[in-house]
Amino acid sequence: MNAAVRAVVRMGIYVGAKVYFIHEGYQGMVDGGDNIKEAKWESVSSMLQVGGTVIGSARCKDFRTHEGRLKAAHNLVQRDITNLCVIGGDGSLTGANLFREEWSSLLEELLQQGLIDEEATQRNSELHIVGMVGSIDNDFCGTDMTIGTDSALHRIIEVVDAIMTTAQSHQRTFVLEVMGRHCGYLALVSALACGADWVFIPEMPPEDGWEDNMCQKLSENRADKKRLNIIIVAEGAIDRHNKSITPDYIKDLVVRRLGFDTRVTILGHVQRGGTPSAFDRILASRMGVEAVLALLEASANTPACVVSLVGNQAVRLPLMECVQMTQEVQKAMDEKKFDEAVRLRGRSFENNLSTYRLLSFRKADSELPNSSFNVAVMNVGAPAAGMNAAVRSAVRVGITEGHKMFAVNDGFEGFYKGQIKEIKWGDVGGWTGQGGSLLGTKRTLPGKHLDKIAEQMRIHNINALLVVGGFEAYVGLLELSAARDKYEEFCVPMVMVPATVSNNIPGSDLSIGSDTALNAITDTCDRIKQSASGTKRRVFIIETMGGYCGYLATVGGLAAGADTVYIYEEPFDIRDLQVREKKSPVALVLCFRNENCNENFTTDFIYQLYSEEGRGVFDCRKNILGHMQQGGAPSPFDRNFGTKIAAKAMQWITRTLKESYKGGKVFANSEETACLLGMRRRTLVFQPVAQLRDETDFVHRIPKEQWWLKLRPLMKILAKYKTSYDVSDSGQLEHLHSNRTTASQNSDSYSLTD
Q1: Which intervals of the chain are annotated as region C-terminal regulatory PFK domain 2 (predicted)?
Q2: Which of 243, 267, 279, 607 ranks highest by number of CB atoms within 10 Å?
């Protein structure tokens, strides 16, 4: 929430508005006095890394009464406040909407009581409201991600990862309760991100007789030499008869029936606390700026709106439509229409649920379709966190679709050396939480070894290829598809899933691994800021990875609150290197520099320049973050994104294999059969690699057009530059489409938090 508060304050001041803090939520608005204070630019510095909310929040009974709202209106009119930005859940936003609807009658009442004059009534005749949804449950319809959800997932996954090590040692079963009284999002996504054995959520109670099914699955897993079981329960979990399912009930059941050593862990308010994740900071900063723009453009006729992200795009949605839709979910659950509840939660939730089912429940061999196709999976390029989650997902979906799955070790190098072996369902157990690449990965390109690779494909009878990797994977796929005329072995469906920390793959806004790298960058910068908090003026130069692509530097800079970010895509000269004076006594300046932003203005050069020029004014330090950006356990976002996107790629392979199987063999040589699956704005799209060639700058290994450059002005405004903000990309008011009737099960568009 603090990142959102900071963005609203700074964007508000930037557009020339007067911005006020209202402390302690609606209670502060009712009580007035010192609770409503003007906010200055400096009031919000160094609060990006603080969890919770600096301006306080409180549940307020007074605001529910007419008298309370009258007092609140009086307090606002006294200060000429006519625009409200509310950050909260559906309760807070519904209250804000009611307040807006009553506004003119409240002003009339104040006028009659002689508390305000006619002129004040005219000046404050309209109240505009914009909402941002801050809720860790992610239970608000119309938004893909609410502020706080990603950070809560980080807390859960940290705990699960820690528990897994102890459970593994002792062969234990753990039952974890996570928050979510009415919404199972946290439980479902954390189950997906850690490969839990079973999950209980309020929207989809288990079928009667679930006790037998669950115990059978747990004992099968143990028989498969799996040393631990994880069961995740949302606090609102119920069975088909509305009876609640508690962690203790599950524990007793497992102990009674199976005799497994079982422990219960209730995470509780740990999930609300801690430092916000990089994703949440960026989401909140983008939303805060969007909220100010929405208020500036609001008129008496526009409905109160919420700003949110759908996919990778800012949108505005009518507040009450979202609230009604959210209430409909609860209604469907009360009426035991569980399928409808899941559908109303939105496409993202539906996809999470179907992917979880696909990956967690192993079918008996007799139930599997017999496809007789062999599919190979490999990693290419530098390691990226989340690659293993993608491979696990691809292998399991492939087996479910009836294929025989093969793993290729060490990229194209291992391919031509014949390091290929069959990989089974159980071989990828526990892979989601592992960093790096368990299959092994190399940067070698296939170009020089085409004949050997073709020979290996012939020996193992490989009918399709799934490549998870970075820029080398993309170039490798181009080389293989270009050699189809010469080698018939390459006339098979090939698809690539982007995985690189640099996020420099054409055809995709995001790639697996970049979110984990951003979190590594923000964590380090938080520590750097803390180290400088007691010292005199100091400038830090921080060098990030990314080759020529400035994504990590720009977005990392936005999340860490950098003052300047130097990147290759935006040329700069010596004048741009001047450190701007900061007024505050403890002045800390963060300069981010992408590793290849300029061949002469190196990190050392800038460091020496600042050390010389700043002598007696400030001292200078440099930090090269290096390979720590590639390491670490994958973030919940990367695990999830990798799992979903690889499952989708595998389903495409199955479809394409069926279409290209003729006369007893697979033959696929059209452009459409060598694809890259990427995230474009709101949807996941399959694009032929041959068509992406024109969009690529091969010399610098970056796409010619990059969406995140639109975030640059945002970063500069929040760091107090004189710059212009392009509003062409800001959200337009859209309406929610209820999924009640037309729930297309197989739509090819996923939303980002998929």
Answers
A1: 374-754
A2: 279
pLDDT computed for residue 582 by the predictor: 55
42 labelled ligand-binding: no
137 is catalytic: yes
Assign 3-class secondary structure to 590-605. EEEEECCCCCCCCHHH
27-66 per-position pLDDT tens digit: 999 999 999 999 999 899 888 989 989 999 988 999 999 9
Any binding-site annotation on 137? yes
What pLDDT does 555 receive? 96
Of 76-85, 395-404, 532-541, 630-639, the range with the lowest mean pLDDT is 532-541
Locus of tokens 């460091």: 607
Shortest CA distance to 673 belongs to which of 506, 474, 492, 505? 492
pLDDT-derived band of residue 751, with 50, 70 and 90 as boundaries?
Answer: very low
Q: How far is residue 704's CA from residue 452's CA, in Å, rounded to a whole number? A: 33
Residue 616 one-letter amino acid: G
Beta bridge partners of 307: 132, 316
Q: What's the token pair of residue 657?
A: 């294999």
Residue 381 annotated as binding? no
Instruction: Write down the CATH superfamily of domain 514-630.
Output: Phosphofructokinase domain (3.40.50.460)
Q: Which of 20, 364, 18, 350 has its CA nearest to residue 204?
A: 350
Mention every residue, 6+ apart, whose C-beta is less than 8 A from residue 625: 520, 521, 524, 542, 543, 544, 545
Catalytic residue among 62, 80, 117, 137: 137
Q: Is the pTM of this model over 0.85?
A: yes
Strand partners, 499: 512
Q: Which CATH architecture has domain 149-272?
A: 3-Layer(aba) Sandwich (3.40)
**Is 675 in a helix, a strand, or coil?**
strand
Q: Is 348 left (phi over 0), alpha (psi -120 to 50) or beta?
A: alpha
Q: How far apart are CA 393 and CA 641, in angstroms?
A: 11
Alpha carbons within 13 A on the beta-carbon side of 410: 9
**Average of pLDDT values for 385-410?**
96
DSSP string covering 523-555? HHHHHHHHHTTTSSSEEEEEEE--TT--HHHHH
Residue of 98 and 360 predicted with greater confidence: 98
Reply yes or no on domain 362-512+634-717 having CATH 3.40.50.450: yes
| Residue partners of 511: CB distance under 8 A and separation at least 6 | 384, 470, 498, 499, 500, 502, 503, 504, 505
738 is in an annotated binding site: no
Three-state DSSP class for 481? helix
Decide if pLDDT at 626 tops 80.
yes
Q: Is 504 annotated as a binding residue?
A: yes
Contact 524, 628 (CB under 8 A): yes
CATH of domain 1-146+276-331: 3.40.50.450
Identical fold between 149-272 and 514-630: yes
Which tokens in the block code for residue 181? 């009284």
Q: Where are the domains of the chain?
A: 1-146+276-331, 149-272, 362-512+634-717, 514-630
- What would the pLDDT profile of 132-169 be if each residue is shown by its tens digit? 999 888 888 888 889 999 999 999 999 999 998 887 78
Buried b (16+ CB within 10 A) or exposed e, 692-719: beeebeeeebbbeebebeebbbbbbbbb
Positive/negative CA dihedral, 618, 624, 629, 631? negative
